[in-house]
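Chapter review: from sequence to fold.
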Amino acid sequence: MISYLITDPKFYTNRPSLIASKLYGISKKHKIDYACLRDKDSLNYKDEAKIFVVVCDNLKIKSILHTFWQEALNFGAFGVHFATKDFEKIPLAKKENLFVIASAHSLDEAKEAVDLGADFITISPIFYTPDKNKPLGLEKLKEITAKIPTKCIALGGILEESQILAIKEAGAAGFASIRYFLN
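The token string follows.
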């Protein structure tokens, strides 16, 4: 099962040295295949990204930058994660051979991302997540994964192993989480 850590400054800060320290600590407790630096409001995102990519490389984790595909390219990140509002950038990132993960909240959005060339699709929110829309639930996840040829990663409210097992049973190729990895 693919495991995808997503940072958030509320939990991981936006100080490069602290992000690095957290990643090293978390990697001792959890298997992480991909990690995404997600900080929409940072004034020092480039500094964060440089350190993040180096730390991920040292830990043998595939580094993903959120939204900033040109920085991903410049700093040697493995790929980029686009929100729905940025789907038009998927072909640009793919043209530069970046791995692309796209966020989807419905079957139509997932199909659009696949048509544009996304390598993985995150489907969210699956479970309750503070400040997010109503959860899609496991049945909707199962429906979407059955109709999408690209690997689907469940996201949203994933905090414990039982949820990861349920996601796997629903057909997802993996899970993504901010808070799960902090346990």
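Two observations follow directly from the output. The longest helix spans residues 45-59. The mean pLDDT is 96.
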